[in-house]
# Entry
Amino acid sequence: MQLGFTAEQEVLGVIGAMGPTEDIRFFPDRRRFAVAASDRDLIYVFDIEIRMTPAGKQIHLSAVVELSSSQLKYPHGLDFIDNETLVVANRGGDLALFRIPPGNGSTKGELILLQTIASNDMKLSSPGSVVVSQIGPGHHEVLASRTFAHQVSRDVVATSADYAVTERQVLLAKWLETPDGISIDPRQRWLAVSNHNTHSVLIYSKVREQHVEIDPVAVLRGSDYPHGLRFSDDGRYILVTDAGAPYVYIYFQDDGHWQGVYDPSLSLRVMNDPVFQSGNTNPEEGGPKGLDLDCTTGLLVTTCPNQPLAFFDLNRILANVYRSGPLDVLDGTASVSEGAGDVRHELEKQQRHAQAVTSARQAAHAEQRATLAEQRANHAEQYAAQTEQRATHAERYAVQTEQRATHAERYAAQTEQRATHAEQYAAETEQRAAGAESRVQAILCSNSWRVTAPLRWAFAARKPRVRKNGRSHTQS
# Structure
């Protein structure tokens, strides 16, 4: 059921370099589709050609344009007002409306900002997904899942008045636990919201008067972490991606009147195990994220970080759907409408499960924090012990240094004493030498020295004589 595709080498290069993706949406004319590259803050627009041949559908991606804007902040959801106007749900910012630049053959372009739908409430920032529908001439309804506020917001944009926002409200809140994907059926009767924490999709009636505390009329269960979702053109099918498993789930209601509790009528594997495992870094990741349908040509396309583009034959898939409708559940309450009791029962069960999971996670986090605190305390004790050891070593070193200093002072004093003694001895020696010199001078200058001079000369004139036997004698 998976379809291969052909593309120019430049297009294949872009696909390989897009990085993590979150959502994908066909243009209203189905000739192009847009992909939200969340990590790179870019939107990629691909030209697609679908040819019907006897061998089956052939898909060719003829061109791609990289669109950027400073107002793209982790783009997570996409939808169109028309072929030239794009609405983006920025997980890192707000809703933004852009004019798509006309094609001029370039591979890159700059989106033209038309309007930013900012929220005064911080909880309502960081929209996850967006869906647009026309509700009157020149007026479009923009619904966005406010993931972290657990709500769905509604803004009415007047396209004929510079895209001014004319109405704002929180549309839904009851039973929502981290809503992610959002979709409206083509006849605008049903609003489907993927509920991350309860592992289900909730369907609300758009025909009834809507308010924040309205209950859903149907629950689609069976997915681990539902993400993107779309109604078929006839409203009888809902396709849901599972971000935590390699599947797209197909739900079926024959008359398109969704009410009750549903299990998948078909589970479609959209990636092989190696591809899934490459992205399955935690239980909530690895599976498909965004998807869209072209029911005219019978095409399903999915996207996710580890498989940027995958195409499937929608007609063959739907032909294999087991058309069962809602589950048969015994309802003992006669005062409620058909299926409403089953839905409430399922919602309460899912809520209890979500609360139990949340409590378990909180307990696990508390245990982790306690373990980390204990580890930090142990590290602090070890550090204190090491610090005390260093202080003891420092004290010992200080004592040793002081002792060496005392020894040095004693040695210096002894050296100074020896130097003093040496100076005194030198002075005394100098005095003795001076005295001896004085006595010599006195002798030389005396009369006796002069009188005895001839005798000294005579003695000096006598030379020693050496005999043959080695003895010496004096010659006169």
Remarks:
- Helices lie at 9-17, 273-279, 314-319, 340-445, 447-451, 453-461.
- The chain has six helices and 29 strands.
- Residues 328-338 have pLDDT under 50 and may be disordered.
